[in-house]
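Pipeline run #58 for the internal structure catalog. This entry was flagged by the ingest filter as a single-chain record with no existing model, so it goes straight to prediction. Upstream metadata was stripped on purpose; only the residue string is passed forward. Reviewer on rotation: M.T. Logging verbosity set to normal.
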Amino acid sequence: MPVVFAGHGSPMNAIEDNLYSRTWRIMAELMPRPEVILSISAHWYTKGTKIMNEKNPKTIYDMYGFPRELYEIVYNTPGSPETAEASKALISRETSYNNSWGIDHGTWSVLVHMYPERDIPVFQISIDADAPPETHYTIGRELRSLREQGVLIFGTGNIVHNLRLAEWDKVGEGFDWAYEFDGFVYENIMKKDHEKILKYEDQGNLAKLAVPIPDHFYPLLYALGASDEGDSISVYNRSCVLGSVMMTAYIWG
């Protein structure tokens, strides 16, 4: 299976027919059908690494103040306890099973377009808020072999995500620094220079603006770790909304 990173942006993308939702559908059409989807979402940000092994994970509505239609979405896929167990065995650091969470909007707002039938098992692995970038990348690398078993490793966040600086009238526009940081990441993904991306904080104030909190950035590192040197790289949705949220998506393989 390929590896995917998707910039998910606003939860409203789940119910809107727009450039992003249409592109996610196209991305799914271009890939083999997964046997299982392993999602690393910006919105399961925890102390330690947690793995969901629920047979029937619940849909999580981890957002506030949106239209009722959004809260009526139920992404009721089965889980995959077997793949969760295999994942736990592959990860070298201490992990634990935890089913207090579920399929959150970082995951379902994209998958509702990619796989609307809801018949592919989905489970999530959390992001340890205290771990350095190298740890997240290493976990992705350790999970890479799951690709050979039909597992889609799916990172969902945003390469640039700074809601404190968002300007709600900049619907399809971005600040210069947002494009610059996205360009830095793009250049090094295409060159397959992952080390520079892991050391993104070396970009100084640019990194502080683009990644004030790394929850939305770290899912990219899992995808990079799971990618392979021989993978082709495709880029989608390379645009900005609200001035400070980049929607860029990648497929490796």
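catalog note: The chain has a mean pLDDT of 97.
catalog note: The two ends are 7 Å apart (CA to CA).
status: ready for reviewer M.T.
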